[in-house]
Amino acid sequence: MNNFTYFDHAATTSVDPKVFEAMKFYFSEKYGNASSIHSFGQEANRAVDNARETVSKYLGCDSEEIIFTSGATESNNLCLKGIVEKSEIEKPHIIISKIEHHCVLETVEYLEKKGKIEATYLNVDKEGIVNTKDVQSSLKENTILVSIMYANNEVGTIQPIKKIGKLLEKINESRKNKIYFHTDAVQAIGYLDCNVQSLGVDLLSLSAHKFYGPKGIGVLFVRKETKIAPLHHGGAHEFGLRAGTLNVPLIVGLGVAIELLQTKEYKNNLKNISSLRDKLITEILRKIPQTTLNGSRENRVPGNANFRFKNIEGESILLGLDFEGIYTSTGSACASGSLKPSHVLLALGIPQEEAHGSLRITLGKDNTKEDINKILKVLPKIVKNLRKISPLK
Ligand code: PLP
User: Fold this and answer.
1) What per-residue string of b and e applies to 88-124 under the rule 16 or more CB within 10 Å gives b?
2) Quick one: average pLDDT of 71-81?
């Protein structure tokens, strides 16, 4: 039994014991190199093939369209830089939203600063949703890629990926140069349909540690015939797209984590997560005055709740909760430590001083009613005490 309460599942999750058990074997017993020709290596290779098959079935694609990477940061970099490098257009154009994860945003900014691309950063509405019409009106003759995240990591808002996919499919019918469509599905997997055919995406990124798998392993789905260059050189691994010895135990762990998402037990758990999260939102808004929910009330992934509390700093609330053994976040884990207000909250039109007062609470499969009662008991007191001493009043 943990003596702490974990509410930071958008940052990372625990490794499911079944995942851990499956991985162990490939660390210490079947430790062969999946590229070795001998039968010991081929056993490891078969384990990789099985995991690849599991992922491809889950995403509704062929197994040769699955590239294992070190996580979504690499998947997103590979997608953006790889597509740009292979493009025959002199200065191609990329469209993303203003609320993408830093690993997309900063990669696009980097490519733009280097003079390699033109970029459009789409606005979102006050709930954090991209308008499909804005995607359409931003398209140019030199557009080669649209990359819009499936669900936001800070406010959990879900984007109209299927709608954008349909739009681009139609537009591509009469275009000379194809516009590729990529989605960062890191925060959506396990909650939303990730079938790449129904989404209409050409590329999709995942990271195993967000769904009870290990850290340091991810996926980039790359549709066949996509013109993309590798980031790494020095081996023919991963269909020539990602050189380097395969991390067999982590790949096995990712495969098992995907299998577990499809079990009845996990699906039942989802209902539990939604109802606990709804109770949390209702009660926090009822018990704590001058508090607002960031993002959409309905159109958000089940585990996400994100609030702003007037006149106090999110960091102070986080520390108050930490003292009580409750772990939350003020935004994206990669941006914590930065004093800048969240680019996501600013893009939602939230004033800078209010954005600073935000707290993200993200639930997972092991959270209970007792966890919700615990935070509901301490949070109002923490907010009240901080407001008493706040110079911001
Ligand atoms: N994309 C999104 C939406 C994320 O939430 C994260 C992690 O927080 C990433 C990409 C990067 O994933 P990783 O750090 O596992 O590479």
Assistant:
1) eeeebbbbbbbbbbbbbbebbeebeeeebbebbbbeb
2) 98
